[in-house]
């Protein structure tokens, strides 16, 4: 029986041991991969991505974020708690108002790169 392979598959079985060794050395440990996967899952939600995108411009309070993304303040707070748990955002309180911002430049780069990649596609 002849196998029908997609155009992007190898037509023969061959292993390049040196290339495999280099690639294995480049793969982070399981803990790092699991953490990065959880982070990307958190960012993958459209509402959370909108929140992060808005925060990449400037610090915003929960009320303003709710208005930007078009969901309730309660739902916005819930999403922000998830983003805080994944160390993507931080907040500060001024009286009774909570202001949020992205945690650091890594988050800014992650969001910017993802959106830029999507716009190019």
TrEMBL record:
HTH arsR-type domain segment(s)? 28-121
Keyword DNA-binding carried by entry: yes
Q: Which InterPro entries match?
A: ArsR-like_HTH (IPR011991), ArsR_HTH (IPR018334), HTH_ArsR_DNA-bd_dom (IPR001845), Metal_resp_trans_reg (IPR051011), WH-like_DNA-bd_sf (IPR036388), WH_DNA-bd_sf (IPR036390)
Keyword set includes Glycosyltransferase: no
UniProt KW keywords = DNA-binding, Transcription, Transcription regulation
One Pfam entry for this protein is HTH_5
Q: Which GO molecular function annotations are given, in alphabetical order?
A: DNA binding; DNA-binding transcription factor activity
Q: Please give the PROSITE patterns that the UniProt record associates with this protein.
A: HTH_ARSR_1, HTH_ARSR_2
- Give the source's domain of life in one word: Bacteria
PANTHER family in alphabetical order = ARSENICAL RESISTANCE OPERON REPRESSOR ARSR-RELATED, HTH-TYPE TRANSCRIPTIONAL REPRESSOR CZRA
What is the protein name stated in its UniProt record? Regulatory protein ArsR
Name the species this protein comes from. Answer: Deinococcus maricopensis (strain DSM 21211 / LMG 22137 / NRRL B-23946 / LB-34)
């Amino acid at each position: 029986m002849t196998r029908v392979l997609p155009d992007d598959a190898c037509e023969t079985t061959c292993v390049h041991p040196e290339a495999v060794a280099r690639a294995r050395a480049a793969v982070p440990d399981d803990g790092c991969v699991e953490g990065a996967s959880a982070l990307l899952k958190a960012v993958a939600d459209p509402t959370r991505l909108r929140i992060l995108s808005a925060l990449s411009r400037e610090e915003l309070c929960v009320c303003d974020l709710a208005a930007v993304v078009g969901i309730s303040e309660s739902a916005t707070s819930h999403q922000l708690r998830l983003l805080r748990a994944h160390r993507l955002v931080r907040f500060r309180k001024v009286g009774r108002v909570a202001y949020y911002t992205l945690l650091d430049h890594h988050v800014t780069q992650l969001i910017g790169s993802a959106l830029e990649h999507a716009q190019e596609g």
